[in-house]
Specification:
Blueprint (H helix, E strand, L loop, with lengths): L1 H13 L21 E9 L2 E9 L4 E12 L2 E11 L3 E6 L4 E6 L1 H10 L3 H21 L3 E9 L2 E8 L2 E6 L5 E8 L2 E11 L17 E2 L1 H19 L1 H7 L13 H14 L9
Parallel strand pairs: 6-12
Antiparallel strand pairs: 1-2, 1-11, 2-3, 3-4, 4-5, 5-6, 7-8, 8-9, 9-10, 10-11
Helix pairs in contact: 1-6, 2-4, 4-5, 4-6
């Protein structure tokens, strides 16, 4: 359930950042603090807490998520740990005692970007800025920069498909997420940001779990990076190929389409250097 919710969050946290993609590199986006521990409360269809540990301005992030969900009289516990480094992304399910790893999608995006000529790189940066609002509008979304201050940080507001996300301006790091989809509601709210040093222990694998590499997910990541850079280099070609969002129509997604969007957003989440937790 949480993963489906994150599809919207990933999409929302991605779009406002297109406006800052004119930096030296589209992926060179730093958080406003070098180290931080961010505490969140989660309420609604899941109830619990989440803590994100940030190092090196967001290049390394470990997120510990603990919630309970009650449905039809049954309570399910969800305990996960996600660790992102410049090279790898690790996901651990502490309830099932399983772990997976995949190459950080940002790495593949950077590889595709670096293959471009200087002129094409400039075109990608310009198009990423232009396409941000058009994609949002195509999905019936709204974006407002510097819409609200949360815990002292100016936040951009993105609204789309039943989700509202407030993220630190120009970074995509969410401090408040509100969702209401088909009567299912959830709120993830940051309650504190401690900019003190973060211990190495938070970035160690959970004891007894060895992450397994998923070659299929890796292949998807590579292909998504290739397609994304190609789209940003030549948006007209992507528009002719047909996505409803590119044509400004409200999308009607099948479960299969939604799964593909989830995969796409997972690949894209690292593009602008932030974690969609």
């Amino acid at each position: 359930m949480r993963r489906g919710f994150l599809v919207g969050l990933l999409l929302l946290s991605l779009l406002p950042l297109c406006a800052v993609a004119g930096d030296k590199s589209p992926w060179d986006v730093k958080l406003p603090f070098k180290n931080a521990t961010i505490h969140y409360t989660i309420s609604g269809m899941e109830n619990g807490t989440e803590v994100s540990y940030v190092r090196d301005y967001g290049k390394e992030i470990a997120t510990y998520h603990t919630t309970k969900t009650t449905m039809m009289g049954m309570t399910m516990v969800n305990e996960t740990v996600d660790i992102d480094t410049p090279e790898w992304s690790y996901q651990f399910d502490l309830t099932e005692r399983t772990g997976t790893k995949s190459v950080n999608p940002e790495k593949y995006m950077a590889e595709e970007y670096n293959k471009l000529s200087r002129a094409d790189k400039k075109r990608v940066e310009e198009n990423s800025e232009k396409m941000g609002l058009s994609v949002a509008e195509g999905f019936g979304g709204k974006i407002q920069q510097d819409a609200k201050k949360i815990l002292g940080y100016s936040c951009d507001r993105a609204e789309m498909m039943g989700n509202v996300v407030y993220s630190i301006h120009g970074t995509g790091l969410p401090l408040l997420v509100e969702t209401n989809i088909m009567g299912m509601t959830m709120q993830i709210e940051a309650t504190s940001v401690d900019k003190g040093k973060v211990a190495d222990s938070f970035f160690q694998f959970p004891k007894g779990i060895e992450p397994k590499f998923d070659p299929q997910s890796d292949a998807v990541a590579r292909e998504m990076a290739r397609q994304t850079i190609a789209m940003l280099k030549n948006p007209e070609s992507a528009k002719k190929m047909g996505g409803p969002a590119m044509k400004g129509q409200q999308p009607q997604m099948s479960p299969e389409d939604q799964e593909q969007m989830e995969q796409a957003m997972e690949m894209l989440k690292g593009m602008f250097g932030t974690p969609p937790q």
